[in-house]
Amino acid sequence: MGRGEAEQRGPVSARTLARFLPALLICTGVCYDVLTPAAFTAVPFFTAAPLIAASLSSLRTTLLTGLAALLATYAVHARSALVPDTDAVTEIVTVATVAVLAAGINRIVRIGDQRLASAREVAEAAQRAVLPEPAERIGGFEIAARYQAAQEGTLIGGDLYAVQDTPYGVRLVVGDVRGKGMGAVAAVAVLIGAFREAAEQEATLEAVAGRLERALVREGGRRGGIAADEGFSTAVLAELPHGGGTLRIVNRGHPPPLLLLLGDGEVRPLRAPEAALPLGMGELGTGPDRAAEYGFPSGATLLLHTDGLSEARDAHGRFYDPERRLAGRTVTAPGPLVDRLAAEVRRHTGGGMTDDMALLAVRRS
Predict the structure, then answer these.
(1) If DSSP codes are grouped into helix, strand and coil, which group holds residue 151?
(2) Buried (b) or exposed (e) across 222-239, using 16+ Cβ within 10 A?
(3) CA–CA gap between residue 248 and residue 237 (Å, rounded)
(4) What is the pLDDT of residues 64-110, one digit of tens each?
(5) Of 188, 239, 236, whose CA–CA distance to 216 is shortest?
(6) Cα gap 326→337, rounded to integer Å
């Protein structure tokens, strides 16, 4: 059996055991009463059964479990005397009371589950609205994107990506907004909205970056407080001309994209010729953006990512190095590439990611 099968069967076996645990407790209680002296009581087993069923099963199953525990309690006492004594009546009432409480607990748990499911549906809808999954093919390029939040149960955070087919070519952005929480999510929404509008209207990639800069500054001013002085976002913008074998990149303080070449598996980091400050920090003195141009041969794949990939650490503090990990690999499609990277980072960190991660891969067919 492979590791993947074992991981899949493990949770299934645990759930199966949990489902039958109330019945197992009742049977154990009956055996305990039969095999021990009369002074010993099996009531703890009978009361535990409906309480466990309340958190794991439906209301109907919880009620049936409580009834079964009540009948088992009566049966073990009827075995020694047809007319229950005071101790027997007390134990029967105790089990009946716990069974009623278990039914109430079950309803509370189910209402909580429904509210949680509703909240997750809202969060998923927000993710689709803010970070929609791009089409698999845009403007003659194969596209794939993945987002992985560091906080368990969270679907969106401060990382962003967007793809737009424009008259000037396919334009992309990947970024990482400073901060966490709803403030970061609001900034993500502002940047993506500004990018989609600017990508269609601006003739140059430098002008698109300028629009994003101004949008982020306006957002910081609107929010006020620390966001007005320290709100910023690293970002990398790319432009892929239709039918051309080149690409243009503007990098604003972001990890460099990686170009994966078909054939020998060479990986080229596309580092910016000149360092530039992140978006939102233009007033500190960064010069005008200058787009760098690179070759983009047929079959090559461009990988844009946030530092959640390159700064993921294992238990010993070692960083995940995507350039080294991808060297020598044959990349045939963007989808499997981002899926493999996401899985490798989860294994590398042991599931304990400390930062969100956004991946955007583009392959020139």
Answers:
(1) coil
(2) eeeeebeeebbbbbbbbb
(3) 8
(4) 999 999 998 888 888 766 556 788 888 889 999 999 999 999 888 88
(5) 188
(6) 9
Q: Measured between alpha carbons, how far is 322 from 331 in angstroms, rounded to an integer?
A: 13
What are the residues facing 163 on neighbouring strands?
172
Cα separation, 184 vs 190, in Å, equals: 10
Predicted confidence (pLDDT) at residue 154 exceeds the cutoff of 60? no
Copy the structure tokens of residue 208. 């698109």
- Give the type of residue at 317: G
Q: What predicted TM-score, i.e. pTM, was given to this entire model?
A: 0.67
Beta-strand ranges (E) seen in the chain are 137-138, 141-148, 159-166, 169-177, 233-240, 246-252, 258-260, 267-269, 292-295, 301-305, 357-364
| pLDDT, tens only, 281-329 | 866 665 557 899 999 998 899 999 998 898 888 888 899 999 898 888 8
Name the residue among 130, 337, 310 with its Cα closest to residue 234.
310
Reading across the β-sheet that carries 137-138, which strands appear in turn? Answer: 137-138, 141-148, 357-364, 301-305, 258-260, 267-269
Strands (E), 221-328: 233-240, 246-252, 258-260, 267-269, 292-295, 301-305
